[in-house]
Amino acid sequence: MAERNLSWLGIDRIQWQALVVAYLRMDGRRAGGASRPGERPGHHVFAAYSGLILMTSISGIFLAIAAVVLEDPLTVSVVLTTYAAMNTSLLLLVDFTGLVVSPDDYRILASRPVDSRTYLAARLTSVLVYVAVIAGVMALPPSLVLGFWHGLGVLGFLAALLATLLCCACAAVIVIVAYAKLVSFVHPSRLSRALSYLQLTASTTFIAGYYLVAQVSQSAQLRHLSVRNVRWLWSLPSTWFASLVPVAGGLAGAAEWTGSAAAIVCVACCVPLAAGRLSLDYAERLSEIASASEPPARRRRILPGFGTAEAFAIATLVRAQFRYDPRFRLAILGVLPITAFYMMLGINGGTMTDPFVSRWGSFGSPMYFAVAFLPMTLHGSLLYSDSWRSAWIFFATPADPAKLIVSAKNFVAVFFLGGYIVLIAIVWSFYFERVWHAVVHAAFVGLLAHFLLQGAVILHPALPFATEPRKAERSSQVMGLFFLAAIASSIAPILLGVFYRRFATIAILAVLLIAVTIGLERVVRRRARSAVLGMEFRS
Amino acid sequence: MAASIHTENLSREYGGRLALTDLNLEVQPGEILGFLGPNAAGKSTTVKILVGMLKPSSGTARVAGFDVARDPLEVKRRIGYVPETAALYETLTAREYLALVASLHHQPRTTAQARIDELLERFDLSHARDQRLSEFSKGMKQKVLITAALMHGPEIVFLDEPLTGLDANAALVVKELIRGLAAQGRTIFFCSHVLEVVERVCTRIVIIDRGRAIADGTAADIAARTGTASLESAFVSLTGQRDAAQVTQDLINALSR
User: Fold this and answer.
1) d(CA A242, CA A227)
2) ipTM of the complex as predicted
3) What is the reported pTM?
4) Which candidate, A300, A297, A328, places its Cα nearest to that of A312?
């Protein structure tokens, strides 16, 4: 029966099935990194999907908390469908050529007897399965709240799940169409860079969203928030999908019925829209565009202090990685929204005060947590890269690997940590009584953060961008570093406050910090030198 | 007997630049055709058109009796193709990738599995069959590509630099395999820059340059026609734009500066 239906649609069932299985395997494994020798091939698929499910279910729990706080089921549904659709769109946009249509498909499949329609069906199925897993996991907790807390029953629960799934599926189609349009104007690498900034904005929104949820749960006024009173919200397709929930729960008026009808029309329109974009011909075009060279980058100056052979090589490499590797760029820039969030918390909590004046006021500021977290992030980001195999060059040239390790640390310390500290000093100067208080405090905090960076290199000296990224491994490291940063950020402000009482103690502190920096730098060099003795290139 | 490959005034242009110009070619079943040319001569473009990956700008091409532009799927069912670059789904294991290819060619699962295991064994890859392709060496990937091209028993095999990365033993096996397949009546379309191999393996050679066929015949015919002693000298005399000795001297001078 299914076979007859598929063949009526011009789809080859055997090929469709084989391609869907392969795509789902690849989607899972891509996130998990390469397998280790002797490891079962399925291991990473499970690890990658479980990581994704865990992260998505955390969002689902936050949405469920918001659903408990808000009184209007339609408003809850709108928040759910809008957030889920945004999340899906960003996931697909950022990894479009991996998850949706890959130029590799053309190179591998174009000489095989695969019809474009079968390819479309297979790609669409794999995208929809991926989207359904994410949307389903995210929608489950708030849908349970809608069904059983808000009293919409089993039908309401199922409608909330369905509305989220359909909204995400349509969002996926719109992303596919939009990307296809954009890629004809912008080179895929430039587009990918632009999208990584979009992801950064989204992560800021995400953090702000959590902050809002926390505020919502404390605000009695927001409990009564209702989209029914905000007319423009009805222009959003996610509101149309959300109106399926009150319809199923028997609470619908004319607006909800109209919204539901619009949602169904939207689903019907999406199928032909996707058909034109998920073809092998399109994969061919993508392949041609991707292989066309990008306009050359500007020639860069030699940075001061990075003129020696190894330092210059590392400066060139780190700058290029920052420009072309979205993972590295996002890891560095990702700390900005976190800092902004902690600043907001500090301002709201009244803890953004001058430590030279207020003895204990600023000690609890969550800002320090962000500052302490940055060196860990920088060190982690320096080690891992998708192009880790290119690290053979460190082993095949007469470059000193120990100098490469130290130069990489110095580059991020000067240009990333340094830049970040300057930014913080500027912000603090608005809140502190004297500008020099902000400058001195930022400099000391910067030196302390540099200790953490030096400590991270001493603990794990490794060549830059020479380690394969492994999601699960990084997560466990991040948790460990998070803990370490938490301790450092609680102790450091108290210690600094003690020294800020007199000029003499400030001078002693400056000398002390510089001395420790120099001492640690010697340890870093010695540690790097001993570590490189046991290093070898394993591809 | 009908030709396995037949092209008539086959041309292809990229953004106004002709990569292939009026190629007329006929290859018979059981023939091993060596397709030679300098870099960017149009070899890969020709192969890509014949395997249905590119559409010709003008002219026609028939492969296994089917027009490549009108019946691409019929052509693709009857051919095997080893591409110049190792294009593989690298997150799949060798076995999974070959099983995927077998399904795309509608091979019954049990038969395919047995054939995959046997071919991997013959290519000395059975120890790595459950490892991801990303962990394979260049030569191992090449063996997987060759296996994927042959496992469905194609009538015509297109090989674009098939010996890249293979060790001497594996290369010898592949060369013998090519002869064996031709002896079974299968047509081999062999693209390579390694003239010694082409000279030894191919029954006929076509040289193209700047999108045009400039020589056709056996290695001895071509050498005789150009008044040279070997295929290599004939190739240089037909396609060389600069004297090789002068280019070498220029390079040495540049490195000594």
Assistant:
1) 11
2) 0.79
3) 0.67
4) A300
